[in-house]
Amino acid sequence: MRIPERLGLFLCMRSTPVQTPSTLWLCIALLISLAATSGCTKQITDDDVRRMAVDDVTRLLQSERERNALLIDARPIAQHERGTLPGAVSVRLADLTESGRLPALERYRTLVVFGQDGGAASAMAVAKRLITQGYSDVRLFQGGVDAWTARGFPLDRRLDSHLAPAGEDESGAAPD
């Protein structure tokens, strides 16, 4: 083996460790930036959702804040139309995109979401999506329609209270 070949072999072996620290620092910088940006979007859990009982809902509706509170029925539209809490509007999870907010909800300070009963997954999902969208006072009415009617409170039949996103009709279809 000649000297230039030995020198080339030496430089080749020597250049690998020299490049490793810069590659290592690049990887570390990349991991730090990924960790920093992934922490920006907080995962909303069930524990982040404030809960209300029947008495809390009736007090809210009877108080001055009534004008600033909106009841949101997260059940399917057919169930909503058969009977819902007085003044409630129907909002489905599909109506709430992850990036956009419903303009009709903007004027309300408090959004109270409910389903059929206390274990309604659709109501929890809608409440969590609203929190993700940045609404600050979102609450879950735990007992839902079942708890409301068990207390003898009336239901409304409203055929026109579905809040469809802009550009959609009541069925959820985009206009022609």
Provide a descriptive summary of the structure in words.
The chain has 176 residues and is of the alpha/beta class. It is built from 5 helices and 5 strands. β2, α3 and β3 form a beta-alpha-beta unit. The termini are far apart.
What labels describe this entry?
2 domains; 5 helices; alpha/beta; single chain; 40% helix; five-stranded parallel beta sheet; Oxidized Rhodanese, domain 1; 176 residues; disordered C terminus
Strands side by side in the biggest sheet: 1-5-4-2-3
Question: Structural class of the helices, strands and pairings?
Answer: alpha/beta
CATH-defined topology of the largest domain: Oxidized Rhodanese, domain 1
Rg value: 27 Å
Task: Report the uncertain regions.
Answer: 6-12, 166-176
| Sheet having the most strands | 5 strands, parallel
The H/E string reads HEHEHEEHEH
Q: Please give the CATH architecture of the largest domain.
A: 3-Layer(aba) Sandwich
Q: Based on DSSP secondary structure assignment, what is the total number of beta strands?
A: 5
Shape assignment: elongated
